[in-house]
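Technical note accompanying the year-one report. For the benefit of new consortium partners, we illustrate the data format agreed upon in the data management plan: each record pairs a sequence with a structure-token string. No post-processing was applied to the example shown here.
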Amino acid sequence: MSKFWIRLIAILEIVGGIFGIAFVVLQLVARQTGLLFASIALAVYILSLVAGVALLRNRPFGRIGSIIVQCIQLPKYVSPLFVFMFSFGFDAYLYFALTNTANAITGFEFKFLAFNQLFVNVADAPVIFGVSIPASIFLAMLLKHRLRADSADAANTRTEQIVEPERNQVDSHSLDLNA
């Protein structure tokens, strides 16, 4: 996979994380949301930010964290019992809805920057099932993506450079003890 797609996924996760954190903090200050749901949303947006930065730096956690973030963004679900939607950076999703009057609706929505809905027991909510198109594509790309060997070799080289002087010190001390 090209660097362009990895960078795009990382940037969208970083932007979504930053704006998501800001939106959740504003909701808490305005007392528009409960502490439990705000804490969950805040944790998800922090994960998005950290995963995006790690993916941009080609760290192993970046791929794993980004897969988790895309899995969170993938489903869009609304019912009277539970509402779950998260978007990071940019999202476009198709949905199928069944209203309270049994009207079937299909649609397409866009979300920019950050968006979340996380609720329990919402009276008179329609039933909606949706799937994020970018999350589907990005998830497939991330599952195929592997950490570049050159960056793994560079990390091993850095570790050896740090460990090697310590080995030399240990060897010189053992020589002094044997003398």
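Partners are asked to follow this layout when depositing records. The CA atoms of residues 155 and 161 lie 10 Å apart.
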